[in-house]
Amino acid sequence: MSAPIVQGWCPGAHRPMMSGDGLVVRVRPRLARLDAQQAIGLCELAERFGNGTIDLTNRANLQLRGVKETDHQSLLAALSSLNLLDAEPGIEIRRNILVSPLFEAGDLTARLTQELIQRLAELPDLPAKFGFAIDTGSERLLADDSADIRLELGSGGLILRADGAETGRAVSEAQAIDLMIALAQWFAQTHTTETRRMARTVATYGLPSEWQGSAPGPIGVPLQPGACVQGTLYGAAFGQLPARQLHLLIENSNATALRVTPWRLFLLEGGAAIPALDFVTDGTDPLRTTDACPGAPYCPQAQVETRGVARALAARVAGSLHVSGCAKGCARMGPADVTLVGNSGRFDLVKQGRAGDEPCQRGLTEETLMTMDFT
Description:
The protein has 375 residues and is an alpha+beta fold. The protein has three domains: 17-89 and 223-269, Sulfite Reductase Hemoprotein, domain 2; 103-211, no CATH class; 286-369, Sulfite Reductase Hemoprotein, domain 1, CATH 3.30.413. The chain has helices at 36-49, 72-81, 89-94, 108-118, 173-190, 198-205, 243-253, 307-313, 366-369; strands at 17-19, 22-27, 33-35, 53-56, 62-67, 97-99, 132-135, 149-154, 157-162, 169-170, 226-228, 231-235, 240-242, 257-260, 265-269, 290-292, 321-324, 336-343, 346-353, 361-364. A five-stranded antiparallel sheet has the order 1-2-5-4-13. Strands 3-14-15-12-11 form a five-stranded antiparallel sheet. The two termini are 27 Å apart.
């Protein structure tokens, strides 16, 4: 099996990525939120220009797949009319911001995020995947998600923390974004091509003491599908949102907005909890702990079909399951109890590991998998 190609960058709207079924066009929602009109409009664009689905990524972005190159400019114009596009491509690239989804309009999380968005042009040149997290609720919800610089609450108030550092710097709201930009400048002056993320730079070169000293607050319980103060949470198997069904769910629930998360969950703001057969509504559903990339033929590097296999095996695997089309393991960076990796039309089995780890069994057929005991 040839080594998979690691792109080193993520698709955007202005700079899409070619996949096996056409262009992948990424939309980065501001404040992790689309109002109902924008969300329904994006569903319509997924059907008009894409393959009829919207991907919810582990960076809380939304992607249209299967877009023809000849349709790209028309799609950009339509996204712009929905106010879902940055006019300046350089700003879009910098807008890698995770937002804790349970914010209230005008609260600390919303204010900090809006200020950061307004000041993105002040950031130095950063690696393509460098990102920020605004996690300033009473409990941290984004602690395990990818971000290089974090704003969080500690016991004494707001702190700014470099990823990879156990403690951060106490800051006021007025100075928080100034110092976030300053920390990004320190990283830009310090990192190398081998240390392109904050945690690795901190581990390699250390972090000046001025950026340390204040401990972050407690980590919250992971969110689950169901009602919450802001509306109703629904799960998306494999992060895949069928556009027509999402459109209907938004309308029928009377939701005022769609909020996205990095956990294959989306929140319908103000939406009633109604039946949704195309989405995950039970936190014990095994699909909640199952990851699968698009697989063949949608990804040119995938060597097997993935999601049908994942659906068939989800209830039969105790613990987490990851079905990956190749050894890159894009759908899940961390280890899973059972990982199946595509290899020349068959599957290699890794237990308690990642897609790139050494398998304990090789060359398994789909038929063999359906009869195996994974305990």
